[in-house]
Amino acid sequence: EAGVAQSPRYKIIEKRQSVAFWCNPISGHATLYWYQQILGQGPKLLIQFQNNGVVDDSQLPKDRFSAERLKGVDSTLKIQPAKLEDSAVYLCASSLAGNMNTEAFFGQGTRLTVV
Amino acid sequence: AQTVTQSQPEMSVQEAETVTLSCTYDTSESDYYLFWYKQPPSRQMILVIRQEAYKQQNATENRFSVNFQKAAKSFSLKISDSQLGDAAMYFCAYRRNTGNQFYFGTGTSLTVIP
């Protein structure tokens, strides 16, 4: 079974530039999560999708971050404009919907450095 | 958001010995799941063990076991016969019953000393 795919693995941009991350979840997983993991901290939930609808985006900085999952499969997270404090690893995860027993499966993440 | 607290930023253990990582959480829900994840330097989060809140029996997976104290909202991970490959960041996670969000603690960095 293929895992959660993310790209790119690394990205370096200057502040005020824009950047986009892509995620393809495990086939059949209706729930998709984007997490931000700042160095030395635990993952913080940015946004959660159920199919192509948003379940929770309460911690997403909506003035600069946006995310979409148009066809209920893959997803894109965008930052525009980027700030220095956005430097972090961005993790995508997916899980089966309606089944609390299942864990979230994670991709390898994208390490973003804003200079 | 739910709060998950890991009070040990770093822990070390001698190879073949046992170590316990602590986790507490705050919730008003009665039904939920708890997880321990391992994150090696490759950044890939890997599930170590899970616990259902309505089950009193502590979960066990080979060398990994948990001590789940629901009333105390405590969920510690015990690693027996520690191996060099166990060295990693360990995150405690809480999964909500309604909404299915996962909330993570700040992690414990485990070093295994040969």
Note down, in words, how this protein is organized.
- The complex is a heterodimer of chains A (115) and B (114).
- With 115 residues, chain A is mainly beta.
- Helix content of chain A is 0%, strand content 48%.
- Chain A has strands spanning 5-7, 10-13, 19-24, 31-37, 44-50, 53-56, 65-68, 75-79, 88-95, 105-106, 110-114.
- The N and C termini of chain A lie far apart (37 Å).
- By secondary structure, chain B is mainly β.
- At the A-B interface, strand 4, strand 5 and strand 9 of A face strand 5, strand 6, strand 10 and strand 11 of B.
Q: Could you estimate the helical fraction of the residues of chain B in percent?
A: under 10%
Strand content of chain B: over 45%
**Largest interface, with Cβ-Cβ < 8 Å?**
A-B, 29 and 28 residues
Q: Unreliable runs of chain A, pLDDT <50, ≥5 residues? A: none
Number of strands of chain A: 11
Structural class of chain B: mainly beta
- Average pLDDT confidence of chain B is 93
Largest sheet of chain A: 7 strands, mixed
Shape of chain B: globular
The run of helices and strands of chain B is: EEEEEEEEEEEE
The poorly predicted ranges of chain B are none
The count of helical stretches of chain B stands at 0
The helix content of chain A is: under 10%
Radius of gyration of chain B: 14 Å
- Largest beta-sheet characterization of chain B: 6 strands, mixed
